[in-house]
Amino acid sequence: MSFSHDVRECIRATISDHDRRFACLYGMLLYGRAVTREEICLKSESEVFRSVFPVLIKTVFGASVKLDMKAKPRKTGRNLWIYKITDKKQVTEIRHAFHIHEERRIDMRNLPMNSMGAFLGGVFLTCGSITDPTKEYHLEFTAPTEMLYKDLCDVLYSVGVHPNVIQRRYAWAVYLKVSGEIEDLLTFMGAQKCTLALIDIKIDKEVKNKVNRMSNCDMANIERTISASEKQCQDIQEIIKHDGMQKLSPELRILAELRIENPHLSLSQIAELLEKPIGRSGVNHRFHRIAVIAEQYRKEKSHDSAK
């Protein structure tokens, strides 16, 4: 199952009293496909939506509500569940109960104390989704009208999150990309288990990223060590070609011999092999002196070749 499914399951488990049922159903209806004088229409591929909506509509408005349901197969192999209420008397009753007019707006009169989370949960059940957080952090609501996306943004701002908006064809996507804000919103909607799962995933990703950074850093250090060692060996070979080893001071000759015998060691490791250990910077300074001598031999060879 998807992470979106898990969030919906958590939301369903929180719809436990009359106020929450009322607020959740309001969110589902308001952000549904259509709420007109003639009909109420909601569509979803979610199995959780399929199990929640019929129960809520009949719990809040009575078992006599005439709810038509039709399954439309999709190419993905899943069904698109279409729910309609076309009895005009019942449509009018539901619209009046929720103060839903032709221009749909969020009406705060429908949200009793502490039921805003249930309302946003209902909106998520109808038009929300969340990407698998192992891939990216992205929670989204698809609002059917411009006014509804603006109202939704205002509500989200009021609970401390800051959504972005993009228009897609005939709908508006209201989305969050910041993991901390997604965690806060999931918790507010009642999906605390999913919040904890997201935090665990984030920690795991951060640990893996840290390991990768350390590995990359180690590889870079190894590459620098190899590159420096190759240059030092080239300098020493240049000195050897000119029979210059015996002309080196004892400390430089010993260091040159150690490098030829141990081309893979770092400067710090070379330093530890000396009879009189010195620091890494001291070894580096001596190799610099060797490089200067080797460069003098190269210049002499170049000068002789030019004659």
Q: What keyword list fits this structure?
A:
11 helices, four-stranded antiparallel beta sheet, 307 residues, Endonuclease I-creI, alpha+beta, 2 domains, 13% strand
Topology:
Elements: H1 3-14, H2 18-30, E1 34-35, E2 40-44, H3 47-61, E3 68-73, E4 79-85, H4 88-97, H5 116-127, E5 128-130, E6 139-143, H6 146-158, E7 164-168, E8 171-176, H7 179-189, H8 192-241, H9 250-261, H10 267-273, H11 280-306
Antiparallel strand pairs: 1-2, 2-4, 3-4, 5-6, 6-8, 7-8
Helix pairs in contact: 1-3, 1-5, 2-3, 2-5, 7-8, 8-11, 9-11, 10-11
- Main sheet record: 4 strands, antiparallel
Would you give the CATH topology of the largest domain?
Endonuclease I-creI
- Shape by Cα distribution: rod-shaped
Sequence of secondary-structure elements: HHEEHEEHHEEHEEHHHHH
**Structural domains: how many:** 2
Q: Mean of residue pLDDT?
A: 90
What is the CATH class of the largest domain?
Alpha Beta
Question: Helix coverage percent of residues?
Answer: 55-70%
Q: What is the architecture of the largest domain at the second tier of CATH? A: Roll
Tell me how many strands there are.
8
Supply the number of helical segments.
Answer: 11
Order of strands, main sheet, comes to 1-2-4-3
What is the CATH H-level superfamily of the largest domain? Homing endonucleases
Radius of gyration: 35 Å
- Taken as a percent bin, the fraction of beta residues is 5-15%
- End-to-end separation in angstroms reads 81 Å
Low-confidence stretches: none
Structural class, please? alpha+beta
Question: Can you characterise this structure?
Answer:
A hairpin with a 5-residue loop joins strand 3 (68-73) and strand 4 (79-85). The protein has a four-stranded antiparallel sheet with strand order 1-2-4-3. It has two domains: 3-190, Roll (Endonuclease I-creI); 225-306, no CATH class. The protein has eleven helices and eight strands. Helix 2 (18-30) runs parallel beside helix 5 (116-127). The model has no long low-confidence stretch (mean pLDDT 90). Helices cover 59% and strands 13% of the residues. With 307 residues, it is α+β, with helices and mostly antiparallel strands. The chain has helices spanning 3-14, 18-30, 47-61, 88-97, 116-127, 146-158, 179-189, 192-241, 250-261, 267-273, 280-306, and strands spanning 34-35, 40-44, 68-73, 79-85, 128-130, 139-143, 164-168, 171-176.
